[in-house]
Amino acid sequence: MTNEYDLVVLGGGTGGYVAAIRASQLGMKVAVVENQKLGGTCLHKGCIPTKALLRSAEVLRQTKQASQFGIETTDITFNYSKAEERKSNIVNQLLTGVQSLMKKGKIDVYEGYGRILGPSIFAPMPGTISIEHQEGENTILIPKNVLIATGSRPRELRGLETDGKYILHSDHILQLEKLPASIVIVGGGVIGIEWASMLADFGVKVTVIEHSEQILFTEDKDIVRNVVKSLTNRDVTIYTNASINFESVKKEAGVEFEIEINDGKQIVSAELALVAVGRAPNSDNIGLQNTSIQVENEFIRTNKYYQTEESHIYAVGDVIGGYQLAHVASHEGIIAVEHMANKNPFPLDQNQVPVCIYAFPEVARIGLTEKEARKQGYQIKVGKFPFVANGKALVYGDAEGFVKIISDQDTEDILGVHMVGPHVTDMISEAGLAKVLDATPWEITQNIYPHPSISEVIGEAALAVDGLQLHG
């Protein structure tokens, strides 16, 4: 059985299905090949399920603090299975939505494992797709263009390989039927810190081990200090500059191993270990050897429009590296499809990508950190304003954190915006729009902010760049 298409997308995750929708809007005949479920890692094993559980953690934390609002509560209990059920319901609802979008766009969805074939009787160039179905049958798709959006998987750590029982990765931990009493998280990046925050709120004893000098090593140091303070105040133990002695790893009714830190050695033990050391691209076993596509450090190499060395084959998302974020994959997919259709899209500007961390407190940023700006030779001005000086934050009961704006002293252009505190993962979009419009801090101050609102902190931080903040 063979079918011809304008575009075949390998992978039905956030990058793949959004690209398919945009291609359909542009009049292309489109097919998506997905080996598991539409929505990919983000919907089923990442963004959505973890944020659903983080919301449960937030409600639990706020309920425990209800007395400050004049609400007396007793015998507060947390039912993890109920939180899991809510998480699953949200995922299933969104999956139904994605399936409906495929039907609306008249996009054919093939369930099976897709591989790229080389030149054959079907086509003179590489790019024909062979789909292996679970039933053992094969389907051949003949596309004019191919988009590789096969995503990524949790990266393993040699010497601390996951077994799904005592040593887990981020897929495993979402399948827990009950919470452990204690956990050690290896890796202090975004995934590790979100789980550390969530599990601490659920009452789990958490230890974080990070090899670098700070957790969240890509974030501004001022932001990290605030996150560390919040986590340690909730009894999370954090070791940085830490190396694991892999020969010491023991798995007997729990996990135990030795780490080396600045001031000596330490034995770390817990009921479970979570390995959160990044994600590896799904670039193997998809037929790249049948093409001229180049791979560097496992990641597929592309140009700024996401074309590979095979000009009719594009690749986006986690499989090409860079920011491994769902919204980036979606944007890359749109650019790739519009380039196929000769729409001359603007290339992605890495400095306009918002990055969010949904721990408590929330963290969001766009653009350069203060350290990066100075390293690149900018003379900078910095404005900073705390949530504790904001009326709405005090009313809301969460006044931890601040907004920090970094601008170029010579041009006044905004170089970076960093936030830590309540609802900052929503507010970062204002900073993103400011970057798109090449705004200055002064231009931000010309916006009229509703009072009281948490968003007023952005305006005050912009004023603070020139020392003109009104309430601080």
TrEMBL record:
FAD binds at K51, G114, T150, G151, S152, D318. It comes from the Bacteria. GO terms for cellular component: cytoplasm. Residues 5-333 form the FAD/NAD(P)-binding domain. Its main location: cytoplasm. Pfam families: Pyr_redox_2, Pyr_redox_dim. SUPFAM superfamilies: FAD/NAD(P)-binding domain, FAD/NAD-linked reductases, dimerisation (C-terminal) domain. It catalyses: N(6)-[(R)-dihydrolipoyl]-L-lysyl-[protein] + NAD(+) = N(6)-[(R)-lipoyl]-L-lysyl-[protein] + NADH + H(+). Belongs to the class-I pyridine nucleotide-disulfide oxidoreductase family. The active site is a redox-active disulfide bond. This is Dihydrolipoyl dehydrogenase.
